[in-house]
Amino acid sequence: MLRPRGPEADPGRGAGGPAFGNHLHGLACELVLSRGLRDTAAALDAVAGRARGPEPDPDLGRLASEALARPPGPLRIGVCAEGPPGFPVEAERQQAVGEAAGLLAAAGHALVAIDPERLGRFTAQATSVFDHVIAVNAARNLGPLGPAALARVEPLTRAVVARGLAIGGVALQAALAAGVAVAHGMWRLFDEVDVLLTPMLATAPPPLGAFPMDGEDVDENWRRMNAFAPYAMLANVAGVPALSIPRGLDRAGLPLAVQLIGAMATDARLLAVGRQLDDRLT
């Protein structure tokens, strides 16, 4: 997964080490924080083929760095400027998606409108999967430390651990099955389009403290996360690559960003499409 919000590649693309808990059942796959597409591509090429499990390393067909040298396409670009139901996206961020779509259309790609309600069904499922996997993983790592150690962490972390300890094997398996359904739904979407273009964030980055850890409402914390980045969790749960690209500045002078999501093993394609949107790369 390629995101400078991670950035991440397909599960199995980068090594996480044998002690990384199977990458949270595929929800996390680390790469680098990079200043530009060239660095991201170089890092992706450097780690390719060295993951050694637990997921297979997908064959990208060519070096990611080579993808920046030639334009892709023409491709079908699915465009969804709005957030899923219940998670509105600010107008200037929707406009950034529209402007990015215009640039891609001018580059020869075909635009396909994607209903946010369709993506909303996937994001709702993805949230449930994320909740169960994160909670169980927190319980596995922190639960054995005992009450005295847990008393030293934030109340929200304790609440997540308590939730994880209460989740049984059947419920966890059901959540993982829902993750499979999300991945399948995204595969069906990518039968219709080659790349999905969405907002990266719904609002400007909030000030420190906007995600307080002193409460115990786990569901409200996940809701805040989805309200801030409504389509970020979708790529993680579906196990597909995604790339965040800055497109201008908002009213406060902070970067506006759009997100490109692709099917599994299309990391190089996303980099090539991102190259067409990144006005900093010459």
TrEMBL record:
UniProt cross-references to InterPro entries, sorted A to Z: Amidase, Amidase_dom, AS_sf
SUPFAM superfamilies for this protein: Amidase signature (AS) enzymes (SSF75304)
Domain Amidase: 27-271
Gene3D superfamilies: Amidase signature (AS) domain
Listed PANTHER family: GLUTAMYL-TRNA(GLN) AMIDOTRANSFERASE SUBUNIT A, MITOCHONDRIAL, TRANSAMIDASE
Family: Belongs to the amidase family.
Protein name: Amidase
The species this protein was found in: Lichenibacterium ramalinae
